[in-house]
Write a structure and sequence with these properties.
Elements (H helix, E strand, L loop, with lengths): L5 H20 L2 H10 L16 H18 L23 H15 L12 H14 L9 H10 L4 H16 L12 H9 L8 H11 L2 H14 L1 H11 L5 H9 L10 H7 L5 H12 L5 H13 E5 L28 E5 L7 H5 L12 H11 L4 H6 L5 H6 L7 H14 L3 H8 L20 H5 L4 H15 L5 H5 L7 H16 L8 H10 L5 H4 L16 H26 L3
Antiparallel strand pairs: 1-2
Pfam families: DUF5691 (PF18944)
């Protein structure tokens, strides 16, 4: 048995204490440096205990220092808590509407929501509920703000209405949770709008400039949009000040923000953007300039188009003059004054020169498209539509569209006119290009005038009532197969003729004996878009019909379920409206 003398023991204890003391005072950086370089190259700032080698002493010191560092952390100074949430003076929701909102938000978050196939889909009704609540000017209950922000985070289609309903308290709450940062996109714009009030007039410019220079990108986009809406010139000045230092992708988004409040005063800035380093920025600048009918770019593109498209009598004339230049006047029936038949002749550009490219013409066509037709389409699309009436002897759009086009160029020319009509929001041109809804739709393989049309885009430029009537007549003539996109551009709730046409077409499909699944998209639209007052009229369709000979097995029952869900959803929408408008 080994014995230890009191002197040796005391020496060992002293050495251990000394080593521990040294380790506790050694710098962490010195310990790390010694470990990285090695104890042979750097002497550790610790003394080994008797019988202990230097590397072990270094590791012991590091372990001790780690514990000391963790235990010795001082609490960080407390940051000030969030300020008091701003007041929202809008009226509170009625009790029934408050319960309805809680139900809609809870249904949105319920995993694997099941239930009867005839039960309404509450999640699809949330956008309408929010729009109705905002129409009445209500504010959301504070307790439902987190759930509302969660819903808006998950669905971008809810964000605008949800943030309007949430008001200033939603923005206050969003600043406290990184998951809700999307809500701050509109914060800068709202702040900018509030700065225009008299009470903030003295500090508004400085505060707006600070937000513009220091804000997040999304906040800056929102700020620019708000500034442009309030004062287009001031918004443009804000953008011009930092334009040279912005990234290309940011310049593109900022440039797109000028679209809604575009005016001739923006032309000098946009002309400079035509020389931008980024092709996408140049293309967007050219598109915006072409929307200004009196801009220099629109004039240049119009002159190029005039050299490519002309109105001639009995084919191209020897000198290439238009009918107007040769004295031919319109007779209203596609004939010149001397009785000759008029037609449009097309001579597309031979090259895409540097001037065309600077004005936004993309030289390389998509795969499968000819170069010359590609260049022609871009020129015609950027030409102000009023110029065609001027060049073609005062003819109205419907008369111009009805004129024959020589040498198979009709599809390319009319397609370019369609894009121009949508871009320039010309209802008269859109109406002429749409034609009558009774014209049968064609497939992609058929070479017919309707092949180039995009009715949904053209319809978007028409007044809502006319839009609904056109689609109703289209459905009455062709059924629902090609109507889904057209229904999507119609105002909600659908006008009575359109709603009646949709229901009649669904009834015909049911009588044909097919399953309703082929019409699930239209049925879903009907649930959200039909006037809720039509529920009683549709009640007769909820019964299971007698199974007809040749009908798909069980189809009648499935149709009954589909109509039960439609009627139930309409009645729920009517109840929602009543809850939000107790009067």
């Amino acid at each position: 048995m080994t014995s230890t003398t009191p002197v040796a023991a005391s020496t060992s204890v002293a050495a251990t204490a000394s080593s521990t003391s040294t380790a506790s005072t050694a710098s962490w950086d010195d310990l790390v440096a010694a470990a990285l370089l090695g104890t042979e190259r750097r002497t550790p700032p610790v003394a080994p205990r008797p019988g202990q080698d230097v590397p072990s002493a270094l590791l012991d010191a590091a372990a001790l220092s780690t514990v000391r560092r963790r235990a010795g952390l001082r609490p960080a100074p407390a940051r000030p808590g969030p300020g008091r949430a701003p007041e929202d003076p809008r009226p509170a929701l009625p009790a029934a509407a408050r319960s309805r909102l809680a139900l809609l938000l809870a249904d949105r978050s319920a995993p694997g929501r099941g239930g009867s196939r005839s039960a309404p889909d509450l999640a699809e009704l949330l956008p309408q509920w929010l729009a109705l609540a905002n129409h009445h000017g209500y504010r959301v209950p504070d307790a439902l703000l987190p759930a509302l922000l969660d819903a808006a985070r998950a669905r971008t289609d809810l964000r605008a209405e949800a943030l309007t309903l949430g008001g200033p308290r939603a923005l206050w709450l969003a600043r406290l949770n990184p998951g809700w940062k999307f809500a701050l996109r509109g914060a800068a714009g709202r702040a900018s709008a509030s700065l225009s009030e008299p009470s903030g007039a003295a500090t508004a410019p400085d505060e707006e400039q600070r937000l513009w220079e220091e804000g997040l990108f999304a906040e800056r986009v929102s700020l620019l949009s708000a500034a442009r809406h309030r004062d287009p010139a001031a918004g443009l000045a804000l953008l011009s000040g930092t334009w040279p230092t912005e990234r290309a992708e940011d310049r593109l988004m900022f440039l797109d923000s000028l679209r809604d409040d575009l005016s001739p005063s923006d032309e000098p800035f946009l002309e400079q953007a035509l020389s931008d380093r980024s092709r996408n920025v140049r293309a967007t600048a050219a598109e915006l300039l072409s929307a200004l009918p009196d801009s220099a770019l629109a004039t240049r593109m119009a002159e190029r188009s005039r050299g490519c498209v002309s109105l001639t009598a009995d084919g191209p004339t020897a000198d290439g003059l238009t009918a107007e230049a040769t004295g031919d006047r319109p007779t209203g029936d596609g004939l010149a004054a001397d009785g000759r038949t008029l037609r449009i002749t097309v001579r597309p550009p031979d090259e895409c020169d540097s001037g065309m490219q600077r004005d936004g013409v993309v030289p390389k066509p998509p795969s499968g498209r000819g170069e010359r037709s590609w260049w022609l389409g871009q020129l015609v699309e950027a030409t102000p539509l009023d110029r065609w009436t001027e060049w073609f002897g005062g003819r109205r759009p419907a008369e111009i569209v009805a004129l024959p086009v020589a040498d198979g160029w009709q599809a390319d020319l009319h397609a370019a006119w369609c894009r121009a009509a949508v871009r320039q929001r010309s209802a008269e041109w859109c109406r002429a290009l749409l034609g009558t809804p009774a014209v049968a739709p064609v497939t992609a393989g058929e070479a017919a005038p309707a092949a180039w049309r995009d009715p949904a885009k053209l319809l978007s430029a028409l007044p809502s009532r006319e839009r609904a009537e056109w689609v109703a007549e289209f459905i009455a003539s062709h059924g629902l197969s090609d109507a889904f996109r057209l229904l999507g551009v119609c105002a909600v709730p659908w006008a009575e003729p359109l709603g009646r046409a949709v229901v009649d077409a669904l009834d015909i499909a049911r009588d044909a004996g097919s399953y309703p699944w082929s019409f699930s998209g239209v049925m879903g639209l009907a649930e959200r878009c039909l006037d809720p007052t039509q529920a009683d009229r549709l009640e007769v369709l909820t019964a299971i019909p007698d199974e007809r000979e040749g009908a798909a097995p069980g189809a009648g029952g499935y149709w009954a379920e589909a109509f039960q869900r439609l009627v139930g959803t309409l009645r729920l929408r009517e109840a929602m409206r009543a809850e939000l408008d107790p009067s």
